[in-house]
Amino acid sequence: NAGVTQTPKFRILKIGQSMTLQCTQDMNHNYMYWYRQDPGMGLKLIYYSVGAGITDKGEVPNGYNVSRSTTEDFPLRLELAAPSQTSVYFCASSSKAGGFIYEQYFGPGTRLTVT
Amino acid sequence: GEDVEQSLFLSVREGDSSVINCTYTDSSSTYLYWYKQEPGAGLQLLTYIFSNMDMKQDQRLTVLLNKKDKHLSLRIADTQTGDSAIYFCAENYGQNFVFGPGTRLSVLP
Lengths: 115, 109
Prior knowledge:
The structure holds two protein chains of two kinds. By secondary structure, chain A is mostly beta strands. Chain A is built from no helices and eleven strands. Chain A has strands at 4-7, 10-13, 19-25, 31-37, 43-51, 54-57, 64-66, 76-78, 87-97, 100-106, 110-114. In chain A, strands 2, 4, 5, 6, 9, 10 and 11 form a seven-stranded mixed sheet that branches.
C-alpha cells in the first residue's frame, strides 16, 4: 500500500512556465485535496474533490487548475508560474464514514521554486 | 472565515512534558485534530478528539478540549528528541479542514 504519492519531489520553474503536479492515492478514497504550505504558515487549501468528475475551489485557487477523471488521480496544474507560487505543495486524501471525515492522509510534498 | 491559532515555537528539555496550545473559531467543528510534520515529510495524524469529549489519552499524548473557550491542547509526556517536529492543530469545517500555522517543538538534550 503506497498511500498518497506525489511527483516530482522538487522542481524549479521560470516565470511564465507551466507544469503539472501529480498526485495518486491507492486507498480508494473519494476525497482528495491540494494544499500549499508557505514558511511559518499553516496549510492553505487550493482545490478539493469529493469524487471523480467533481472539483471545487478552496481558499487560494487563483493561478491553479485541477481535474479528477479517476478516483486515484488528482493532478494540479500551474499555467503561468509566478514567484508567489513558490511553496511546498501537499496532496491529501480521505474517506468518509458515518457522515464524518476522520483523517487525511498526506503525500510527501512537492517543493516548487519559481524564479 | 474560520481561523485556527497556535504559538509558533516551543522548547523543552528531554524528559519534560510539552504542552502545545491551539484556539479555533468554528464551534460547529465535529472533530479537532493534531498532526505532526517531521522535516521534509507530509503531515501525519497523531490523534483527534470528538467535539463532545473533554479529554482523550493515547499513551504519552493527552488532548484536552475546552469547548466554551474554543481551546485545544496537546500534552506530550516524557518528551523525547524524536518528538522534535512541527505540530499542527486542525478543525474540520464541512468537508474541509482548517489548519493552524504549526508549533515548532524543539527538544533540548
